[in-house]
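Sequence, please.
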């Protein structure tokens, strides 16, 4: 089911007051701030975040049903989009939790670079969540003699974020674009060189840091590291199930067949994965439960923001691809990157329709039709590329920029790794290292 966009004054955004975006901003603010507050408030949030998310979402739904023209259709489309989104994220999380990679030895700097490069590629094809969950524990184990905070930070930079920019499977915002009509293989043809340059630059900086740290390791320990054996793999069935989930993306969108295939793969993983593999991965449904509850609130509360941009987006003055890249990236750094992507994609649509109304069909039209027109216009296509790269790359700027970031941080801490604080992460790593690379890439490729 496609989102319906109507022309002229009947546009839903024209019936939406700006104050109705407050629940959206409030929910994102709570998600960003509450985990960092005093222990008592944090404990309260951990118990009631679902109530807050659903409550704010239902308040917006009530307004749409009672006051917004065609509001019921907008709500139905949004819920459908959420179900597709959470089925993908949830199935990847479950299946990845059934894969365990054991490593006996320790890694040299070159080993780490190769591992992270493989992780970057994997992130685009099994998702940043899936790749992060599969690879973070072996990455910690293979560096157990000298594991440091920067190992975790660069893992988040590369595997949990930037690596996932090539396909709709890679990161949640890109899957939203796919649901809205961006063809599956369109993005990889547009961003491949920018992806290679960005990931390559981050890997190069990591190699310099890791080589310097490795040089400080005692010579005897270094010889021991270089002589160790490496891999053992468990959970082969789940690799097949990962491919099944990827294949499900191409299933026609009828009767929830796509979602049923994904859920079926997850069910088979739970049924047939040995308990010892789940135990070694410390697998639980806690993280995906949190994502599911928070995101239903995000999807519902962001409806007014998207509708308002439909009607008033041209007044924001964002026109050039670099502006879209920096603006979407800046918000993705501190808010969730999926709704940020959706918001700026909608802004590009609204701006294009206002500037070139003759290019768009008259009367009611699906959002897939609008996106198709965007992609066929060179300047508009650059805006879609800019939003895609901004939402994915800049999600690495903070722990709250993308869902896997906090998951990786939590796993590292439970494994005894001392990771940077929230502001330490920003001040020591993302601002001085990641931001210059991302800005340079934007200027070079956009």
């Amino acid at each position: 089911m496609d989102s319906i966009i109507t022309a002229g004054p009947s546009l839903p955004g024209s019936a939406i007051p700006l104050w109705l975006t407050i629940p959206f901003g409030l929910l994102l603010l709570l998600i960003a701030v509450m985990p960092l507050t005093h222990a008592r408030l944090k404990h309260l949030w951990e118990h009631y975040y679902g109530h807050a998310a659903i409550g704010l979402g239902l308040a917006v739904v009530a307004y749409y049903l009672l006051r917004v023209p065609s509001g019921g259709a907008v709500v139905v489309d949004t819920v459908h989009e959420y179900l597709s989104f959470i089925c993908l994220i949830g199935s990847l999380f479950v299946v990845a939790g059934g894969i365990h990679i054991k490593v006996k030895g320790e890694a040299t700097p070159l080993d780490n670079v190769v591992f992270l490069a493989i992780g970057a590629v994997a992130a685009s094809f099994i998702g940043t969540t899936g790749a992060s969950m599969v690879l973070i524990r072996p990455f910690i184990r293979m560096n157990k003699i000298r594991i440091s905070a920067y190992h975790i930070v660069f893992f988040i930079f590369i595997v949990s974020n930037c690596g996932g920019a090539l396909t709709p499977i890679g990161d949640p915002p890109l899957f939203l674009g796919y649901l809205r009509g961006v063809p599956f293989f369109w993005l990889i043809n547009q961003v491949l060189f920018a992806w290679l340059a960005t990931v390559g630059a981050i890997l190069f900086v990591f190699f310099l840091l890791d080589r310097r740290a490795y040089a400080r390791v005692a010579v005897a320990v270094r010889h021991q590291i270089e002589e160790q054996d490496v891999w053992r793999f468990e959970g082969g069935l789940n690799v097949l199930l990962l491919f099944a989930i990827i294949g499900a993306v191409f299933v026609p969108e009828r009767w929830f067949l796509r979602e049923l295939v994904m859920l079926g793969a997850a069910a088979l993983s739970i049924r047939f994965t040995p308990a010892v593999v789940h135990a070694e991965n410390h697998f639980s449904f806690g993280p995906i439960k949190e994502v599911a509850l928070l995101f239903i609130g995000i999807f519902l509360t962001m409806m007014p923001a998207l509708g308002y941009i439909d009607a008033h987006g041209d007044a924001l003055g964002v026109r050039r691809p670099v502006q879209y890249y920096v603006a979407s990236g800046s918000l993705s750094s501190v808010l969730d990157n999926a709704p940020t992507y959706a918001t700026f994609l909608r802004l590009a649509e609204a701006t294009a329709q206002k500037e070139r109304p003759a290019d768009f069909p008259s009367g009611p039209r699906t959002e897939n039709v609008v996106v198709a027109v965007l992609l066929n216009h060179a300047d508009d296509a650059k805006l879609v590329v800019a939003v895609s790269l901004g939402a994915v790359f800049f999600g690495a700027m903070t722990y709250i920029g993308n869902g896997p970031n906090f998951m990786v941080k939590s796993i590292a801490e439970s494994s005894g790794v001392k990771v940077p604080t929230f502001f330490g992460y920003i001040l020591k790593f993302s601002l001085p290292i990641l931001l210059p690379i991302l800005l340079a890439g934007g200027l070079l490729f956009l």
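The chain is about 70% helix and 5% strand.
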